[in-house]
């Protein structure tokens, strides 16, 4: 979890303005989101940075951030959502790593409400496995779906079993989720 916190604390955005850009200047500054307590504090820093313009249109020219935030529509060249701080805090306080959040949204898309997204992850996350076959075998063992006294001459084709099981599950980057 330490690496997750470090990554989330290193999220940064390069903020310029469209006016400066159209005049041939890329003046702006990299702003580390962890330096600000909330979106309002972050927005005040941007206003101060570009106080030389009367009504600046901010341009988020570059950002070092997880694709999850783009997928959720929290950041683009012309927009940064006030919800970005809420999502960062939810991930930090969650019992799931950022990779799990990314895998879930890769499988099922995103939700407007971050608490609903977190609840869906909690309800459907099955764990991390090296392959569909490994997942299938572990799931059937944990649910006592394999008789303990299975004769040795009966074998399980894990590839086919996994293929059939995966009709009810989704996976991304080794993370498995129950479909809902």
From TrEMBL:
Transmembrane segments: none annotated. It comes from the Bacteria. Pfam families: ArdA. This is Antirestriction protein.
């Amino acid at each position: 979890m330490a690496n997750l916190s470090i990554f989330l604390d290193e999220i940064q955005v390069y903020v310029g303005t469209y006016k400066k850009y159209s005049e041939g200047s890329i003046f702006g500054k990299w702003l580390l989101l962890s330096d600000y307590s909330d979106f309002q504090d972050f927005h005040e820093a941007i206003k101060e940075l570009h106080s030389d313009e009367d009504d600046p249109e901010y341009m988020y020219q570059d950002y070092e951030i997880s694709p999850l935030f783009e997928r959720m529509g929290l950041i683009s060249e012309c927009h940064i959502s006030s919800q970005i701080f809420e999502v960062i805090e939810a991930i930090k306080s969650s019992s799931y790593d950022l990779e799990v959040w990314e895998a879930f949204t890769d499988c099922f898309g995103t939700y407007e409400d971050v608490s609903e997204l977190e609840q869906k992850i909690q309800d459907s996350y099955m764990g991390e496995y090296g392959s569909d076959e490994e997942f299938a075998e572990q799931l059937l063992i944990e649910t006592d779906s394999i008789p303990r006294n299975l004769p040795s001459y009966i074998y399980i084709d894990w590839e086919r079993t996994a293929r059939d099981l995966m009709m009810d599950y989704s996976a991304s980057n080794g993370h498995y989720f129950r479909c809902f």
